[in-house]
Specification:
Methylamine Dehydrogenase, Chain H, 4-stranded antiparallel sheet
Length: 122
């Protein structure tokens, strides 16, 4: 059985929801219609953050990756696969920076434009 772990609403009344196994669906809350499915994580998605200014949905998962999608197109626009050694439990984006936290004890500041990140010890 699939379980919903995270739900986000944006100002346009869309629902951004994360499910297990590894897929995310964008829903229109007014019509209860699934608009698109976002695939990419190899396992459970643990955290989401949506930035309406950039139209990016960023996620972190048990697969140790951070991924970013353009919600207008559903296109995966960036994958950070080697910044953490453990499951990613926290993501937050601010402009071109994405801050992540993981079970490996590291906090990383990722530069979306440059496509790279720098780990910071807690």
């Amino acid at each position: 059985m699939d379980a919903c772990l995270r739900i986000l609403f944006d100002k346009s009344a869309r629902v951004l929801a994360s499910f297990v196994p590894p897929l995310r669906q964008l829903w229109d809350a007014s019509s209860a219609r699934c608009e698109m499915t976002l695939r990419g994580h190899g396992s459970t998605v643990m955290c989401l953050h949506y930035d309406p200014a950039t139209h990016r949905l960023v996620s972190g998962g048990v697969d140790k990756t951070v991924r970013a999608w353009d919600v207008r197109t559903g296109r995966l626009v960036q994958t950070y696969a080697s910044v953490h050694g453990g499951a990613v439990f926290a993501v937050h984006q601010l402009g071109d920076h994405i801050v992540t936290g993981s079970s490996d004890g590291k906090v990383c500041v990722l530069n979306f434009s440059a496509g790279r990140g720098a780990p910071r010890e807690p």
